[in-house]
Amino acid sequence: MHIPSFSERISRVKSKSDLKKELEQASHLVTLAKTRMQSSMPLELRKIPSMAKTLNSRGYRYYRQAQEVERQIKSQYYKILSSLK
Prior knowledge:
Blueprint: H1 6-11, H2 16-39, H3 49-55, H4 57-75, H5 77-84
Helix pairs in contact: 2-4, 3-4
């Protein structure tokens, strides 16, 4: 599973609609990574965050990476938007 970094996503942004699309894709990727991580775990342990880290460290790493990219885009949304004008 490839998760584009913040700089990769920003380099593709040319307009306001591109920025919105990248933000939507980032949030979708977070959901997808979380779903994949949880589906590989036993049902009883899915709600315990420490077990996700222990039992599926690779999936958890993808989930955290996707979360970080989404957080960066959200936190710098208006800054990026103003630089497009």
